[in-house]
Design a protein that fits this description.
single chain, alpha/beta, 7-stranded mixed sheet, 4-stranded mixed sheet, globular
């Protein structure tokens, strides 16, 4: 039975790392003593060690320890034996590249399908969908495949932004880019706004947070989903 939290971001304006999610995580990870952290996306090029320290500082507030996957000689074994797993944000291309490089994609999917509790933020949420084609990141590396975990039957567009009313910016909006994606792809896309997250219990996906989310379907108008509702395709 899948048990996942898929969050748009780790940090919202005016709060510290994971602070807005900690009350939820304290319940979600009840009885978990140590979380395995996957820092492969590492934002701004910080070291895996430093990124792990950031996660550790947040989780200690709810009495949970954090170990980075890079600390283990056999990362595959670490995933298989983990009490719970957290994949942080950063660059999705590099995250997926490292997961394939270390032969971890299938192992990670297997343990999540069997019920290992999982938290993803940003890039760590992008990999929960069918593929990573709706990431906002620059392709700084070229992973062997864009196919990701497929734990949910749609893609995530984390940090989803609405067009700013009255803006003179002439570039593409996020909605426009997703519409372009749907010219060539059938996969539904959920625009997940900052401070929103999905809770996955087996095949049931519930939207949480104060804001709505925007569901994009090929050849259909986008639909606003209210917080607290199940995401149905």
């Amino acid at each position: 039975m899948k048990k996942m939290i898929i969050a748009s971001t780790s940090t919202i304006h005016g709060s510290r790392y994971l602070e807005y999610l900690l009350p939820t995580l304290a319940v979600f990870f009840k009885n978990v003593k140590t979380i395995l952290f996957i820092p492969y996306a590492r934002p701004s090029g910080i070291s895996y060690d430093d990124y792990t320290k950031i996660a550790k500082k947040a989780f200690i507030k709810i009495n949970i320890d954090v170990k980075g996957i890079h600390e283990f000689k056999k990362p595959k074994d670490a995933i298989e034996k983990a009490e719970a797993i957290f994949t942080g944000g950063g660059n999705t291309f590099e995250l997926v590249n490292q997961l394939y490089k270390n032969n971890l994609i299938s192992t990670l999917k297997e343990v999540l399908e069997k019920g290992t509790p999982y938290l993803g933020t940003s890039a760590g949420s992008n990999i929960c969908g069918i593929n990573m084609k709706n990431t906002n990141d620059m392709p700084i590396v070229y992973p062997p495949s864009f196919t990701t975990l497929g734990c949910i039957p749609f893609n995530i567009n984390a940090h989803y932004l609405d067009p700013i009313h009255g803006s003179t910016h002439m570039g593409e909006t996020r909605a426009t880019r997703i519409k372009e994606f749907h010219i060539f792809n059938e996969t539904p896309v959920l625009g997940l706004r900052e401070g929103s997250w999905l809770e996955v219990l087996n095949n049931k996906v519930i939207l949480n947070g104060k804001l709505t989310a925007r569901l994009f379907l090929q050849n259909n108008d986008a639909v606003e989903l209210e917080s607290g509702v199940e995401v149905r395709l």
